[in-house]
Amino acid sequence: MKKIYFTVGPSQVYPTLFKYLYKIIKEDIPSLNHRGPDFKELFKQTTNNLRMLLNIPDSYQIFFVSSALEAMERTIQGCVEKTSFHVITGSFGKAWANYAGQLGKNVLKSDLLYSKIPKKAELICITQNDTSTGVWIPMKDIYNLKKKYPEKLIAIDIVSSIPYVDIDYKYIDVAFFSVQKGFGLPAGLGVIIVSPKALEKTEKLIKKGVVVGSYHSLKNLSEKAKNFQTPETPNVLNIYLLNQVIKDMLKIGLKKIREDTDKKAKDLYEFFDNHKKYQPFIKNPRFRSPTTLVFDVGTESEKLRKKLAKVGFIVGAGYGDNKLNHLRIANFPSHTSKSIIQMLKYI
Amino acid sequence: MKKIYFTVGPSQVYPTLFKYLYKIIKEDIPSLNHRGPDFKELFKQTTNNLRMLLNIPDSYQIFFVSSALEAMERTIQGCVEKTSFHVITGSFGKAWANYAGQLGKNVLKSDLLYSKIPKKAELICITQNDTSTGVWIPMKDIYNLKKKYPEKLIAIDIVSSIPYVDIDYKYIDVAFFSVQKGFGLPAGLGVIIVSPKALEKTEKLIKKGVVVGSYHSLKNLSEKAKNFQTPETPNVLNIYLLNQVIKDMLKIGLKKIREDTDKKAKDLYEFFDNHKKYQPFIKNPRFRSPTTLVFDVGTESEKLRKKLAKVGFIVGAGYGDNKLNHLRIANFPSHTSKSIIQMLKYI
Fold first, then answer.
1. How far A188 CA sits from the closest chain B CA (Å)?
2. What is the rounded end-to-end Cα distance, in angstroms, of chain A?
């Protein structure tokens, strides 16, 4: 039986992925020299295509790292001398704050986006869509924050909302994601989008003698990216796959992908809003994620997941302490409306 | 025309790789949940098989990171409070020392393994086989260093000598490599082998308030590895491939792989030792790498590489400033004796 993965990441692979895995074999991609012209061309194409897909300004740089957790670390190192401020709406926001603490920073936390942010906070870290709870922070709220605190840097984790989330980058200094969620790719590649202002901050920190990382500092990544390279031998295979999937998405159009995502999210939330026993974990629709949906199913998570698995639908358990009472369902471009409707019939 | 890659990494893929790429598709590996039992089993099997292949003591832990450069960073962070000592025989040893400096450490350097090492040096960093120059440091010399300075930690970069290099781990505290060289896999995965003494040092540093990393500190990697997991969503695909290739190597036996490597290296060095115009870059056979061989070809590197490429043999240019006057030829388990002899006919 062919399985369909509704897990929130790694998830269902992008429908064309396997076709590209064959191409990888044919084109000797695993042997590609990461200092040669073919790799540079791949780097250039991938970042250009991503820029086009997500509407990223030309002045922003795009870096490849190994995971979103690495992106959290490099962002803290590159943008914070002493104090970072963290809006926490779930376990990934909490993890980011913990890493900032481990990196020796003074960590301020808030569970409300709208609280007063102390003067000494240099960077505001926001998990725009927290995969653990399914809390979605509307971009408008984030823009308002930037308008209120224009002198502060803002970094957002868009791991599980990309490519759906629509961002006006002029309000954002750093945004990052990994590729095993919305892009439906194997794990092992992270992407950081960085504003000129964030890079200026890194330069300032270096001048002050602050440690901003080593082989992968925003500075070293920036220097190499100018020459379409990475400091280390990167995950070339995944960069290649990402480029292919972005090209597919450009053909379909992000508008269409977003409309489809909205429709599928509506179906899912309506089903659980009208269910007798189960309900969406997030009550206020404004903060409900359209891409990683979390449902409170009492203590029936395991029972439901087993039932669904029997018919080929692999659905996520709750995160951490909520393992047994939440269902987490991904709604990425790889998930068809048809498969969602079929899956819901078994709940 | 099917190409054969003699580049020093990424290089020729392991002969069975493509078979396993098909298995990856069949077994839904890109969708594998990195917190589930199947991933834990994969982690356990891969580390156990690697332990068996390389004769790594049970008391040593094995971690997955994203590259050898990351391994350099995490080793410095986890093992050095103030001062590291670097034996430099090429560009990769130099890079390691630079990263230590960027991480705020006091960096001492030597180009001789046998120089006196100051009391304050906490960690001795040795590029056992430097891919840029083809300098091989015999393991015996490294053991002697540890015997002379038993209180110091020793870390070795075995990126391009693994799995050929035979290590008695009791003299070594950290060893690391990436998988795109001797294992013939796609790039994007690094492996660190860590002694209990190195981990004790990390614990001591944490107690002193020294930053040892964040999501990927030796400490956090160790905690997760105890439960057969990684802090981040890792490069599962490459871990899966590594496990398959290790199993293949266990079947052949490392003794046989080493004998074959010696024979192929002998053929290569004899050819260039007897050549009228070209010669091995390293004069003293004791320091000549059997796995990444560097030859001085005057100014004919580009001409030779073009000639070889025309018949399907892709050979490496010199590193950095030696781009135009060196040839670099890899001799990994993926390279057959037959293909080496054929390639030499065209030189």
1. 4
2. 19
